[in-house]
Amino acid sequence: MKVLQRVLETVRPNFEEGGKLSLFNPVFKAMENFFFAPAATAMTAPYVRDPLDIKRIMSAVVIAILPCLAASFYFFGLRLVAMIVVSYAAGGAVEVIFAIVRKEEINEGFLVTGLLFPLILPPTLPLWMVGVGVAFGVFVGKELFGGTGRNIFNPALVGRCFLALAYPAAMSGNWTTAGGGLTGRLLQYVGASNVDAVSSATPLVLAKQGQLEELSRMFLGNTSGSIGETSAVAIILGGVFLLFTRVANWRTVVAILGSSALLAEILYCAQPERFAPALWHLSAGSLLFGAFFMATDPVTSPVTNVGKWFYGIIIGVITLLIRNFSGYVEGVMFAILLGNIVAPILDEIVFKVRFRRLASEE
Fold it and tell me: What single-letter DSSP state applies at residue 106?
């Protein structure tokens, strides 16, 4: 690493103001910060209360995603590699263009967004849609608000929401059956052209038809669904790591899962022939993935602890209401985006209440 550091120090003048390659200074700084920790103080969210910088927060998230990635490769095969490459290429291009135009540094945040985005998509989605979706998510959900730390919405969810509304047939049809056996689909590339031979409905689609998928299959991930959201055990492993490292706040996770489980159990006890039990809902769809990896985004979630509780409750309740009482089979995406909208309001309410208490005590 010392050799690389000397090389970077040698070529640095070319990228600084007045240098021959000054236009690409954001790219140079991004590469430098990727290999070496920047000695800088965060000026915008996410803020932390310990020596961790943004790069290390993002590194922890990447490590937490590894179990989901491993399960995704096993169940859905080599196509995930192509989707990740397209996601990084298209979304990264948008990041670089905005950094060059604004003459700002490229933030490490896209390392996570570019990896999370393919995991919340159907396995056989055309690659050009992957590129369009992630580019839209980064552009509209992040850069238009000023970049990392200023965005209101989770960029990955903005991109998925756009695809769900613009291309509903591609986003909701012909789900791939998860691989099994010793090698799963590790050596297979299942694309849109040959999906018909291995297609099946997701657990939430089957539930709308009155059929409940086996809980054991959903827990392990041997079922249809978005690439990284089918294996509950893989998501829990990564989620526990995020909680242990305090990158994700446990209040948000507990509030989402607790409120959704409580409402699901109430509905199940009222009409067991119509509604599924709580444990089934927790394992089905993207509820676990959204609770651990999406809703805990430190930029788009509340900063106050009380606000995190209400934020999580709102997401959990809305998810179950959409699943059970609307035409959509999944509600996590819309619930988190709605939660992103109210997050600043929740913090404002908490601050006002606290200031009133302090004023009254004086």
Answer: P
Length of the chain: 362
Q: Is the pLDDT of residue 67 over 70?
A: yes
173-230 pLDDT, tens digit per residue, is 767 888 777 777 877 777 655 555 456 678 888 888 878 888 888 888 888 889 999 9
199: closest CA among 173, 228, 160?
Answer: 173
| Distance from C-alpha of 236 to C-alpha of 219, rounded to nearest angstrom | 10
Give dist(CA 83, CA 127) in Å, integer: 6
HSE-CB at 33 with a 13 A cutoff on CA atoms is: 21
**Helical segments of 221-304, H only:** 232-244, 250-270, 278-283, 287-289
**pLDDT for the residue numbered 139:** 93
What average pLDDT does this structure show over 24-50? Answer: 57
What would the DSSP string read from start to end of 132-198? HHHHHHHHHHTGGGTSTTT-SS-HHHHHHHHHHHH-HHHHHS-PBPPP-TTTTTTT----TTSGGGG
Extents of the domains making up the chain: 51-243, 248-362
Separation between Cα atoms, residue 62 and residue 245, nearest integer Å = 13
Cα–Cα distance between 200 and 195 in angstroms, integer? Answer: 9
pLDDT, position 10: 78
Structure tokens at 308: 């995190």
**SS3 state at 199:** strand
pTM of the model: 0.82
The C-alpha atoms of residue 135 and residue 128 are separated, in whole angstroms, by 11
**Of 2 and 139, more confident:** 139
**Torsion, CA 189, CA 194, CA 198, CA 202, rounded to 10:** 90
pLDDT confidence of residue 43: 56
Closest CA to 134 of 154, 153, 160: 160
Which residues are registered as beta bridge partners of 199? 176
Contacts of 303 (CB under 8 A, 6+ apart): 45, 47, 347
